[in-house]
């Protein structure tokens, strides 16, 4: 199988990690998001199966990515569909808030996916933290409330569990748990 393109969506500064607003200032939330994004970029660069890493964001990255696709504000699912059409090939979509992500997590997901669509939930089995889409796979993104259930319900979807991919940061407890 040919290499994978990783696509990492992230919101604009000021709009990141808003669920942490009761605990962190906007500057602290942006710094946290930037740190986690840098970590994800570093892991993707070190992953042998990932041939390029692209950021999907309203602003271009400072560094760490091989390219950038401008988020035009159509909503995450529409933006991902548009980017998928632009990029083609094997596509790994993963979120930027994965502080425990390792190369092993990425390689495990992509190896288990093979020619099937594979998804990884958050550790609460509510959200979806990563999706591996082999070239030509029929799949419609369903990010939003309870996205894991929606993605898992799609025919032929394989569920992969990997600790570093399942630990995202949405609540203050996630920073210490």
From TrEMBL:
Carries keyword Oxidoreductase?
no
Do you know which InterPro entries this protein is assigned to?
Answer: CofC, Nucleotide-diphossugar_trans
TM segment ranges: none
Q: What EC number(s) does the entry state?
A: 2.7.7.68
Q: What molecular function does GO assign, one term?
A: phospholactate guanylyltransferase activity
Q: Which UniProt keywords apply?
A: GTP-binding, Nucleotide-binding, Nucleotidyltransferase, Transferase
- Name recorded for this polypeptide: 2-phospho-L-lactate guanylyltransferase
Per the record, the gene is cofC
């Amino acid at each position: 199988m040919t290499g994978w393109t990783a696509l990492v969506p992230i919101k604009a500064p000021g709009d990141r990690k808003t669920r942490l607003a009761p605990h962190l200032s906007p500057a602290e939330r942006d710094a946290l998001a930037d740190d986690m994004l840098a970590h994800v970029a570093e892991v993707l660069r070190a992953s042998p199966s990932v041939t390029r890493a692209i950021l999907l964001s309203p602003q271009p990255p400072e560094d760490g990515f091989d390219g950038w696709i401008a988020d035009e504000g159509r909503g995450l699912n529409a933006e991902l569909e548009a980017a998928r059409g632009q990029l083609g090939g094997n596509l790994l979509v993963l979120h930027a808030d994965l502080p425990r992500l390792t190369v092993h997590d990425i390689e495990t997901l992509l190896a288990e996916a093979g020619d099937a669509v594979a998804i990884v939930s958050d550790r609460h089995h509510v959200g979806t933290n990563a999706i591996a889409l082999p070239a030509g796979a029929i799949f419609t993104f369903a990010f939003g409330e309870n996205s894991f259930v929606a993605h898992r319900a799609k025919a032929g979807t394989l569920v992969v569990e990997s600790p570093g991919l399942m630990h995202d940061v949405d609540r203050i407890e996630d920073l210490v748990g």
